[in-house]
Amino acid sequence: MFENLGRTQKNLAKEIEEVYFAGMLPQSILFSGRKGTSRLTAALDLSFVLTGEDNLRPVLRSSHVMYIAARSLRLETMAALSLFHRERNDRSRLFLIQTIRKTLLQYHSSIAPLYENKKVSVKERDEEGRGGTLFSNAEAVDAILLNLEDGVANAEIDQIVSTLEKRLVSDFFSLGKKTYGASIDEIRAVQDWIEDGTDEKCVIIENPEDLTEGAKNSMLKMLEEPPAHSHIILLSEHPDRILQTILSRVRRFQFPELSSKTVSSLIGDIFSLYGEYSTFDDFFFEEGTDDEDKKQLGEASSLFSSAIIEGKTLSLDEENKMFSVLDKTDGYGYFRSSVIKKIEASLRSEGVKTKRIRKAWSALSEAFYRNDTYNMSIRIALDTALREAEIGK
After folding, report:
1. Coil, strand, or helix at residue 54?
2. Which residue has the higher pLDDT, 180 or 165?
3. What is the DSSP string of 322-335?
4. CA–CA dist 93, 108 (Å, integer)
5. Which of 16, 20, 176, 331 is most buried, by the most CB atoms less than 10 A from its CB?
């Protein structure tokens, strides 16, 4: 039942399956852990079981499952598109379908009225030169995936990839919003949806700790008296920031971090691509980013690493250029891994003052902690790390 989860979190897959078959799985549960620990994989596996659609899990097609994301899936999608274009086989085709459908699960009919007039800036216009709405663009993308489910001739792949590239613009992944996560109107719409009818329904809500107070209160009402046929799965990176009144109403499952060996092994098993990857984000960046963007991000990580090691600040122009590259590439995860590797290499290098490097490491660790735990702006966190490293040089 939980084959996908079992590839990375074997013990958790067994535990959830046992609880499910024992009839002890409550309607509301919480999967907590860092991003990249397979929380979303577990939520999707379980959702399709709970709605009785486990036969559709491989293609993630369902109107009974909704996902409210607090992350961008753009980089993963670009990686999937690149792999399909290059590999042209069934496994890359299925991975592309699954990856795009994660975003399409956010385009649910229950919230469509909230976005009916929201335009999308697609590069491919219709006959009248219009890009259409967010939801009409999503329908066009889903139509392509429906055709892909039945297989595709090799001669059609170039055109399919080109069409998807034009439609998979940034606002497709964010529903045109400035920030990710659920709004109070979305939570209310979801509540109306799960209360309507008797079909089994499941909603996945990511990072409930970052919701506005109004949205949290609406979600609490939904958790207090969920309809018998509804299921709510919360995904959280920081459960300690979730209201106790919410925590008291969910069954918690903790997801441990994955080793780089596990990540690399799974990538090798699925794609026959054998390399060393610290995280899935590293893999997605490598596969989904063009050479020029990789070069620019590499230069940005080298610039920042040198500055924090030497206890120097960056000029405003240097900072703006660095964050422009990070925003353009969605490359924060890769940037983070790259900077860590450069500082670790400096610690092993002769001729570099160990005390200074340890100070830089301490400042950087604190910056990442603030960003992860308190949702501090990454720009502010990195600026603070540079200042602290400069003071302690």
Report:
1. helix
2. 165
3. HHHHHHHHT-HHHH
4. 23
5. 331
Residue tagged 């960003």 (tokens) = 371
* pLDDT tens digit sequence for 291-329: 999 999 999 999 999 888 888 888 889 989 998 988 888
C-beta separation of 265 from 301 below 8 A = no
- C-alpha dist (Å) from residue 288 to 77, 264, 280, 322, 369: 8, 17, 12, 19, 27
**Cα torsion angle, 350, 351, 355, 361, sign:** negative
CB 385 within 8 A of CB 363: yes
Q: What is the DSSP string of 91-120?
A: HHHHHHHHHHHHHHTTS-TTTGGGGTT-B-
Res. 127: pLDDT tops 60: no
Q: 211: helix, coil or strand?
A: coil
If one counts every other C-beta atom within 10 angstroms of the C-beta of residue 140, the result is 17
pLDDT tier for residue 331 given thresholds of 50, 70 and 90: confident
Single-letter amino acid, residue 171: D
Residue keyed to tokens 């353009």: 328
Overall pTM surpassing 0.85 (yes/no) = yes
Give the count of beta carbons closer than 10 Å to the beta carbon of residue 359.
20
pLDDT in tens, 378-393: 888 888 888 887 765 5
